[in-house]
Amino acid sequence: CGLLTLAAPALAAASPGDARSHRPAVADVPVSGRVTQTDGAPMPGVTVIVKGTTLGTSTNAEGQFSLNVPEGSTLVISAVGFMKQEIPVSGATTGLDVKLQEDLQALGEVVVVGYGTQQRSSVTGAVASVSGQEIRQQPISDPTQALQGRAAGVTVTQNSGAPGGAGGTSVRVRGVTSAGYNAPLYVVDGFPLPPGDENQLNAISPNDIESIDVLKDAAQASIYGVRAANGVVIITTKRGKAGKASINLDAYRGVQQVWRKLDMLNAREYAVINNEGRIAGNTALLPKLQNPQSLGEGTDWQDQIFRRAAIQNYSLTATGGSDKARYAVAGSYYKQDGTIVGSNFERFTLRANGDLDVNKWFRMGNSLSLTHLSDRQVNTTDEFNGIVTLALQMPPTVEPYKPDGTWNMPDPVADAFTEPNPLIEALLDKKKFTRNRVLSTLYAELEPVKGLRFRTNVGVDMIFDYSRYFRPGIPSIPKYATITANANSAYSPSYLIENTLTYDHLFAGKHQVTALLGQSGQQFNFYNLGGGRSDYVRPDLQELDAGPRNDKRYNNGTSSETSLASYFGRFNYEYAGKYMLAAIVRYDGSSAFKSGERFGFFPGVSAGWRLSEEGFLQDNRLISNLKLRAGYGVVGNPANAGAFASLPTINTDIIYPFGEQGQTVNQGAAPTRLPNDLLKWEKNQQLNVGLDLGFWDNRVEAIIDVYNRKSPNLIAGVPPSRVSGTYEAPPTNAASAYNRGIDLALTTRNIAKGELTWTTTLNFSTYKNELTSLGSGLPYDGQVYRSGAVVRYDKGHPFGFFRGFVADGLFQTEEDVQAHATQAGAAPGDIRFKDVNGDGTINDLDRTQIGNPNPDFTYGLINNVAWKGFDLYVFLQGSQGNDVYNLNRFYTEGGLNGNGNSTTRVLGRWTGPGTSNSVPRATTSNPNQNQRVSSYYVEDGSYMRIKALTLGYSLPKKWVGAIGGQQVRVYVSSQNLLTLTKYSGFDPEVGGNAVDRGTYPQARTFLGGVNIGF
Amino acid sequence: DKFLDQAPTDRLTEASFYKTETDAIQATNAAYGVLTQQGLYNASLWGFGDVMADNSETGGGGGGDGAEYVQLDNYTIAPTNPLIFEHWSACYLGIGRANLVLERVPGISMTESIRKRCLGEAQFLRALYYFHLVRIYGDVPLILTPPKSAAEALIARSPQEEVYTQIVKDLNDAATNLAAFEKYTGDDAGRATKWSAVGLLAKVQLTRGKMTEAAAAARQVINSGKFQLWSDYGNNFKVATENGQESIFEVQFKSSVTTWNDYGVGFKGNEFFAPRGQGLTPNSGYGFNVPMLEFAQGYETGDTRRAVTIWRPGDAYPAGTTAGTAQPNSLPGSPNGLNVKKWFVGRANNCCHDSELNIPVLRLAEMHLILAEALGATTEGFENLNIVRRRAFGDTTHDLTPANTPDFKAAVLRERRYELAFEDDRWYDLKRTNTLVSTMRARGKNIQEFNTLLPIPQSERDINPKLTQNTGY
């Protein structure tokens, strides 16, 4: 086959009975039959093709088909999500009974490639696919989380365990290319979403998803041009199929709990360390701690903030339709409480997708999704007031509550601790974030001549965000005494209009040609309005209008409008199912750039050769599929340039107060950045070579891709000399980098005998990256933490490596100190830092690469076993060889320096020569700055975890049938059941830049659920 | 292409700015904008002027707390020290904005007097920033017009004398342009006046050792009749009497109202200098910039400036504190129970720990001290010194005379130390009188001769290879 059809809403491309027949060459015989699922349900829209030709048909609403085929040929019967079957035809046949088995694996037959679909066998690029079935194996809030371990070449990290996936999910297709925006382009039902935060997909219910396809290589992704440099993730939602209506109810409920707590000191141990540090630092002991033995266990602050939390999901989906009209409607409710007090997430979704064949030459349809979600999140992302960090630091000698039941604060004198009670930080404020999102597309398609289709697609994505915040105030605690309120409303609409013309034709029975021409315009707007008040006199009236009219009232508002205009074309040629060629060009223009630098070409070329269709392999018993693919393309990433960044803008945020008592803030204005007229988007050039393999009738299937991605003009802020009078680094296309790697997906159908089936899938990804040049730019740091910058970007190093001092054990004696290079403040028991540059002095010049957050490889291993009514799903997922900077230990060993509580690791501290060579001495004065950024905090972040384990049982059909049902399945499932790691923090899966600073830990979840189908 | 023709709706571009009188005033305001930033009066200068001198020590929470100040305190100063970079940065940002005013404002159609005011202010500010640069770094790049590209700013250092010549020229030009602006009241209070320019000129000339010129300028200010000493020394450091009768130029602060940030216009010394953990300020006090014992003990009996300037054990706290009623004998970071009080405002605003209290850059008392120093041990010299002492002690019995003052210059320097304590000045006094190294060694600091200049920031040298490093760094 190999037809490239239009971005069909229905994945089953052709209408029932729409025979793609052509005149047969030799003696034909009639064949007819019926295709059903294993349970006997009829399967409409199933493709029936004569092997090695494009001759075929598809089944009608009853699952029936009939066609004339050359005698002695083989029928290939396939449908999305089912294992294909091949049936040899020896002569005229009627009443063929074909039962298709569900294919639980990702290597589906039809892949969505942008403005169209393709048979997997015709794909010449690198596309990873994950089925909806697979996605629903895990209780996730954000569909992108399901890509983790399931799509080779896609590295997914959940940034935190915050409910609703609010911490975001980092999806990195084939490595990391920039120090800025690395998220792929998401396309939902043909609508490219605006670039945004990394949890924007949490508005889509995982239940609604039919499939996710990831365009990994540039030859394939170039159809999305300037936005495709980080890969393209195409999400297709469920659509109706002709046939009997089916109604499915999916429900689960469960409980979540953090899977690990850190071992913290109790009150007695805490006092001992604190006293020891104060003696060493020549500071007076705290009277409260002077007699450690008089203290008990004290407060376990982790128990105060962590809790068992409920998770639940209910979704109802109805699909069905006739030859003429098909529908899928679904509603869902998802609620997740956070494992940290004060955090929760709730979502309602509603979806209605429809397709209508008005007549033979006109059809139209729509996708409509409405989402309402709201959440309350707690701060776990900043190291100063993050709940987790605070709870770990808080001395166990501090009570969480006062005797009168109100929140207690540590006493700055008696406890010598000034951070706030994490319970107040987590629970005090009344706050809520609400998002309503409408994502809707409508298409109309004309087919005046068979094979020639004109399609118009219009769409809108409207995001309405509203957040409100009210701090009721605690009069007795100065830090919380002020009653404040603020509210913010943002509206982000994006509009799309696209016209495409597709022509599909098979010439002379062997030359399959598909041509696509299209135009697209998309607009991205943003409007924001907010305000706040302070010093409310009473906590009950919480509206802004109820607040005081003082000079602390403020408001803010902004808007922006940007647009993208595009023209694109694609040409596919396939000869006899053996040789394939695809050429893509996209011409994109973005309003973010200066006129003259706006438009660019993004070409992609790829070719495939199915060796298994050649005579010399056709009847090979071992090799059932062998395809070689190669492609090259150029794609872009405009996000790091930012809008209008090339212009010499005036900064009007400069302020200075004048007036007799300095009471009026006056505005100042000056440019703070030099212009850069030549600014362009970042380009990404990618070469991909791939191999598809099938052995023993595809019992073993493998897809292997090797790639080389080059980024020749990455944007780096080239910092100006301050002598210029400006401080902002103008974005400049100065740097270059590469990512090279291998993706491997391997599926083996170990057992497929009668009632027992066992399938294994391995997804494996590895890449290496390096910043090869900074051009005129300078190495620069990532975010700066309390102990200094950790993440660094420099040429000759991988992206975002860790830089710091190299810790080299501890000084044991004064002689050790003397023998070492000059290290200011060092004493026995302090960390010895390596004199990397050998100049005899330990200073900033001795900082070097101390870690690499990029993994050696990541993997997912999925096992599916079914036996009679039982099904077992085991999903192992892991990452190997990545480093994590455990900044949390800056705090959890801060007790050594008199700053709050510590983990029990400090019990093994240095207390004299030979006592420890790893944990430094306790001293409040810390003259050696043991806490500086160093390899002391770098840990191996490798892990392997049982991400999901599910055991299900489907009730026998006869019981279910008796009550009119089709399926009743009950299951129990666990997520993050077991994690194997040497990492000492809460979770080795640390998102973002792999610096762990009190991230919201992930939960272990146990749940039970039911699927009921009618 | 028309579909794509969009311009920013939230920002001005250079094409749409520098058109009106308001634009000219805003461009000038921007040149003031760096004064309240960390690189100048909000961090770097108390590090240089006081912590690095013999007035105070770092203090704070110990350990890595305030590591950048510890480097200054102990003279283990790295070219990567953020205070050194921030200072360089703030001065050059201010100079760049002044340069823009001087380039663009002459072409704007506007009221002539306001144009002169803008130009004069820009000249004054440019001189002030170069004066800071040249004292800290020695030779520095002299840039007087806005660069059109990043490369134009990559220039070499000019000799100090050339920079000083420009400073003097700018101050003379400023005094001329600001001739009609001798004193402001109302909304423009805090802008540079003619006397700000002349007063700064006095200090510049004193620093260069040009005593005749210094005396002339200082005398001009004193005799202008526009200024008068407060009878109460403390009035110089009160919100209610800001920009008052003694003030010649001061940095204008205003506290944050809702959330504090490092780039606001509030002075964070309120929190940073407050006794650590004593609950006197919104975050309980960080206790930085702790007076040295020798300094605190050096006050003469009867000097009313002591109670205004520092906290000593037993000093009563204002009502409503959480920890106690008086300063303890010892505090974390302050073993002798000493803290800086001059910039203390207290719990002005629960939301934010910064304060609105201005910091004087030039005030009349200093003009008397400059005049005294420039004149030497003459009758007029003693008179000017004693004018300042009489206000401090409230009587004439503490007057210095040739009989009890063998070393007049040392006496003036000592007077400056106590009169201008924690006004970011002490290190510069020690440096210009060539007593820095000996004094700091006497206080037990391991200072080297080359430490009379600080290092050129490493990050600037990384960008501009023409920037040579000062010896020793």
Structure description:
The complex is a heterodimer of chains A (about 1000) and B (about 475). Chain A has about 1000 residues and is mainly β. Among the domains of chain A are: about 70 residues, Immunoglobulin-like; about 130 residues, no CATH class. Helices cover about 5% and strands about 50% of the residues of chain A. Chain A contains ten helices and 50 strands. In chain A, strand 34 and strand 35 form a beta hairpin. Chain A is globular, with a radius of gyration of 31 Å. The N terminus of chain A is likely disordered. Chain B is mainly alpha-helical and about 475 residues long. Chain B starts with 11 loop residues before the first strand and ends in a 10-residue tail after the last helix. Chain B has 17 helices and seven strands. Chain B is globular and about 75 Å long. In chain B, the strands form three sheets. In chain B, strands 2-4 form a two-stranded antiparallel sheet. Among the domains of chain B are: about 200 residues, Serine Threonine Protein Phosphatase 5, Tetratricopeptide repeat (Alpha Horseshoe); about 100 residues, no CATH class. The longest helix of chain B has 26 residues. At the A-B interface, strand 25, strand 26, strand 30 and strand 31 of A face strand 1, helix 1, helix 4 and helix 17 of B.
Give the SSE order of chain B as H and E letters.
Answer: EHHEHHHHHHEHEHHEEEHHHHHH
The backbone outline of chain B, from C-alpha atoms, is: globular
Structural class of chain B: mainly alpha
Which sheet architecture does the biggest sheet of chain B show? 2 strands, antiparallel
Structural class of chain A, please? mainly beta
Mean pLDDT of chain A: 89
CATH-defined topology of the domain at 13-180 and 434-467 in chain B? Serine Threonine Protein Phosphatase 5, Tetratricopeptide repeat
- Biggest interface and residues each: A-B, 85 and 90 residues
Instruction: Summarize the amount of helix of chain B as a percent range.
Output: 40-55%
Largest sheet of chain A: 22 strands, antiparallel, barrel
Assembly classification:
heterodimer
Number of DSSP E strands of chain A: 50
Query: What percentage of amino acids of chain A are in beta strands?
Result: over 45%
- Global mean pLDDT of chain B: 93
Radius of gyration of chain A: 31 Å
CATH domain class name of the domain at 13-180 and 434-467 in chain B: Mainly Alpha
Helix content of chain A: under 10%
